[in-house]
């Protein structure tokens, strides 16, 4: 199965030349490290940055350059900085081609829960709800199961929803899945992972084609 960097590598293959991409907190922030060098991509962060690059090397961090998760970042030539009003105008105006988010749960109909666990203190939902309400192409990066081994790909989400019927594709440490009208469709499996393992780790409805290829990460 994949680690977090492996998930990010696979999602990076979904990023196309000329895309404007919003990266959510967590695994999605790693995607910028693995995008092909021969394409031009603009990474947007909701705190007001367009033109993010990969993470800086140790010792080269600039505390004034951060993403929405308060991680230090680099910027590419031509990057721009702006206020939150401008940033959310980009998001709400549907000027972002691809949104990559983390999640705690995803339902078979594309619902996503990624902002709150009841009983735990949160500062707010951030930009998550604006992103899922405005984006038409949402890929979720997540672990397939929780620490107890229970599925996070469910028939129905149990946590407070961030968005309804909005997720298009999911990349986990076990598989790549598409959300369809019939539930999850298995597209690829992680290297060394069997279809049976994925089936056992998925609570929601799962369509399994006759041939399920292994992921290509390079």
Automatic annotation (TrEMBL):
It comes from Leeuwenhoekiella parthenopeia. GO terms for molecular function: transferase activity. SUPFAM superfamilies: NagB/RpiA/CoA transferase-like. InterPro entries: 3-oxoacid_CoA-transf_B, CoA_trans_fam_I, CoA_transf_AS, NagB/RpiA_transferase-like. Belongs to the 3-oxoacid CoA-transferase subunit B family. Pfam families: CoA_trans. This is CoA transferase subunit B. Keywords: Transferase. NCBIfam families: pcaJ_scoB_fam (TIGR02428).
């Amino acid at each position: 199965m994949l680690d977090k960097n492996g998930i990010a590598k696979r999602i990076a293959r979904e990023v196309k030349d000329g895309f404007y991409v919003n990266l959510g907190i967590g695994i999605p922030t790693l995607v910028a490290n693995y995008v092909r060098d021969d394409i031009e991509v603009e990474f947007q962060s909701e705190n007001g940055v367009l033109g993010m690059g990969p993470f800086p090397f140790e010792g080269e961090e600039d505390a004034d350059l951060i993403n929405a998760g308060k991680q230090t970042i680099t910027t590419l030539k031509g990057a721009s900085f702006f206020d939150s009003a401008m940033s959310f105008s980009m998001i709400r105006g549907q000027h972002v081609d691809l949104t990559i988010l983390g999640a705690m749960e995803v339902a078979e109909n594309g619902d996503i829960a990624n902002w709150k666990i009841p009983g735990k203190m949160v500062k707010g939902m951030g930009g998550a709800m604006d992103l899922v309400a405005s984006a038409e192409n949402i890929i979720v990066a997540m672990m397939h199961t929780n620490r107890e081994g229970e599925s996070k790909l469910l028939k129905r989400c149990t946590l407070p929803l961030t968005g309804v019927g909005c997720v298009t594709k999911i990349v986990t440490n076990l598989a790549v899945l598409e959300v369809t009208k019939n539930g999850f469709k298995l597209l690829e499996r992680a290297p060394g992972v069997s279809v049976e393992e994925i089936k056992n780790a998925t609570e929601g409805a799962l369509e399994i084609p006759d041939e399920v290829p292994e992921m290509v990460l390079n």
